[in-house]
Structure formats: structure tokens, C-alpha cells
Amino acid sequence: MLLERYSHLGFQLLAFPCNQFGEQEPGSDGCARAYFQGHVPAATDGGAVMFDAVDVNGPGQTDLFAFLKASAAKQAAGAWRAPWNSDVDSIVTWNYYKFVVDGEGRLVRGGFLASPQSPVEAEPLIREMLGLEPLAAEGLAAAEPEPEPEPE
């Protein structure tokens, strides 16, 4: 839904499978990528990209997740109390965590959503990041895709 609305404006979904949580991603990278491309809108046109499996916690974690978790911890310390302990490595505790990152690679304020939260909860952040007007609260689920940008 979010990809359908905003991929033409530069919004992308970057997915990183991880087998550290209940061994839910035991398959090969090719297997995960094939499933992703068959089930995620815009996965074949660049709006969504599936990367190879990574570790998001522990000594083998990727630099990307070390950075994202540190950014989320800094935001939590400055603005609100996090729903996890102060150990940065414990921020991602299950699959399907979401980080909203701007085009410069910075975590958007409030751009950390835990596993059970719907990606749609990030829509206001995404709209703000793309420079779009906020949607009325009752119109979030029924919003039409944003119009294509005018050619220059």
C-alpha cells in the first residue's frame, strides 16, 4: 500500500531477511528474494529491494544495523522512554522492525517502529519526509496514490 502510493516519489522499501529470531528465515537468499518479489508490490521495479540475509544483533551484525540501532537509541534517550532496556543490541528483538530513513541516510525522528506495528503507522513520517501535506486522520486508509510529478 505505501509503495503503491509513494514509490514514484522516491520512497523505497529495503528488506533485510534475518534468521536470528526463531529461525524464521532459514532458506537461501534466492528463495527469500523470489518470495519477496512474488508478494511485495513494486519489488520488481526498484520500489522495493530485498538484500541478502544479515545479522542485526550480536558480534556479526552489519554496520547498517549497528548505525540504525544507535540512532534509535539516541532518539529514545532524548525524547521518550524506549520499550526496551538501555542495551542498544537489544533494540531489535524480533523480525519486521521498521526504520524510516531519509535520503541522506538519517533515521527520521520517531522513525523506529517495533515488530507488531503496521508499516502504515509510518505514513505520516513518510509524507513529511517527501514534503507532502498531512492526511486527515480518517483518510489514511482510503488515500489515493499521490499524483506523478510533473516532467521538467
Task: Describe this protein's structure.
With 152 residues, this protein is α+β, with helices and mostly antiparallel strands. The chain has one domain: 3-Layer(aba) Sandwich (Glutaredoxin). It has 4 helices and 4 strands; from the N terminus they run H-E-H-E-H-E-E-H. The strands form 2 sheets. The chain has a two-stranded parallel ribbon. A two-stranded antiparallel sheet has the order 3-4. The radius of gyration is 16 Å and the shape is globular.
Keywords:
two-stranded parallel ribbon; 11% strand; 152 residues; 4 strands; globular; two-stranded antiparallel ribbon; Glutaredoxin; alpha+beta
In short:
The chain is of the alpha+beta class. It has helices at residues 2-6, 29-39, 63-79, 123-129, and strands at 13-15, 48-50, 98-101, 107-113. It has a single domain (2-139), classed as Glutaredoxin, CATH 3.40.30.
* Helical residue percent band: 25-40%
Number of domains: 1
Main β-sheet, spatial strand arrangement: 1-2
| Main sheet attributes: strand count, strand direction, barrel closure | 2 strands, parallel
Could you tell me the CATH topology label: Glutaredoxin
Question: What is the number of strand segments?
Answer: 4
Radius of gyration: 16 Å
Mean pLDDT: 77
